[in-house]
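Researcher: Going back to the complex we discussed earlier. I've cleaned up the inputs and rechecked each line, so this should be the final set. Can you rerun the prediction on the complete assembly and write out the structure?
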Amino acid sequence: MSNLDVGAATEWIKKSADVLNVEKKRLTELDAAIGDSDHGENMARGFNAVTAKIGAAAPADMAALFKTVGMTLITTVGGASGPLYGTFFLEIGKKTAGKAELDTLAWADALDAGIAGIVMRGKAELNDKTMLDALLPAAKALRDNAAKPLAEAADASAASAEAGMAATIPLVARKGRASYLGERSAGHQDPGATSASLLLRAFADTVK
Amino acid sequence: MKKLINKVEDILSEVLDGMAAAHGDLIRVNKEPAYVVRADAPVKGKVAIVSGGGSGHEPMHGGFVGKGMLDGACPGAIFTSPTPDQMYEAAKAVDGGAGVLFIVKNYTGDVMNFEMAADLAKEDGITVKSVVIDDDVAVQDSTWTAGRRGVATTVLAEKIVGAAAEDGKSLDELADLCARVNANGRTMGMALTSCTVPANGKPSFDLPEDEMEIGIGIHGEPGRRREKLKSADEIVEELMTPVIEDLPFKAGDQVLLFVNGMGATPLIELYIVYRKAAEFAEKHGLKVVRHFIGSYITSLDMAGTSITLLKLDDEMLKYWDAPVLTPALRSKI
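Model: Rerun complete. Updated structure for the full complex:
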């Protein structure tokens, strides 16, 4: 596939829901080690609500789709992940307004806008052991591959997210509930960086 | 996992049904979105007090809705912050025209969701102020973390500020009072066992039979350090020392001493803890003028305790003593 349209974007969201349902136990186990044992359940619940909503009435365009995803996550996920992922999709939605298709550059712009929303809401930085540790390298990889077709760039982006996710293991958390553990948060992979990687891998699988 | 539940996914809904069935004279329950408000809400001309947080801490917060305490409470999923639509709808349901005060525990998710709710309510013309409670001395390095957690002082703040609202105080006065309670309250907790989140099905952390966790929060998250189990008296000293040093409390201070159970610790043990905690406080010259003992802010089925000292001024004392009528806390009304 060359570009992302509303059909492919919808496919991405549904694929994400499937992946989160498969991986929810693992996400919750990662969260149990350094958080509060609910990340997998919360993400699966949120994305199941999203697929129910977009299954009932197919969104007219990408902006409407991403707005529905964002609002639904905000009202169904809870915790910090709800507002953060919710804001992420709302900002992506704003960036895609009026666009029928996204090429690599346009997707990079949208992803940047989504990440800026997360930074605004959560005030975290790179290496704080959060979802940003997957998202920021993913956005950079997308920029580095901006001239390439979306499939290729998205694959590189997902791979960077996965590398960023793995790189959270030795980090000491400085944001979120894991930060209360201090040094003891080191040695565990961050659940938020993990769910973010799953979403971006689902994206790459959708557009390949 | 052995629990008195039907289906994991029905827990929240059935808890609310139970509360509605039992306390229909005191509270009203809304399911979509989930919130609890006092039966006579909105009270015209009175500032409304709204709190909320993840479920699993019962009786906090829903059990504290009623005359003299909270106007509304928003329960999230277990150990998960409620969502902005809940606080927004609850604020609309309780606003009596004098504004709404959000009492928020300092967790990343809670703070973010309450912020989004406050933005929505303000767009509707409702005046909202928020006070964040962060009384947990176990979090030492607050520069590099999300800050100190909000724990047991929250219950004291809800009681005192709720009574002051009933007495006709303004939104600004109540926000100041709430901030003052937070500034003068300190808590430290410990766990003898972990707790089991129903959706997870197994204990959140492993804690061997002869060990304890010092500095836990209220979400089954492990604490600052793990130690060999000690006697109740030694544990109390270990909890009280950082609490007293942190404020710092000094000789002659009037304090409220709150010994809280984490959910699975019987009252018989809490009184043993209280006995030593009161003795320890008096030894440091503190005057324990009020006490509060019981499981009021819990962590599901965790065994353990938290000890809170609140340095009282005359206004706090007056409103602590004021009447209250809620499902979980009631006094002369």
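Model: Worth noting: The interface with chain A takes residues 33, 54, 76-85, 107-109, 112-113, 116, 138-141, 144-146, 149, 197, 199-200, 204-205, 217, 219-222, 224 of chain B (CB under 8 Å).
Researcher: Good, that matches what I expected from the previous run.
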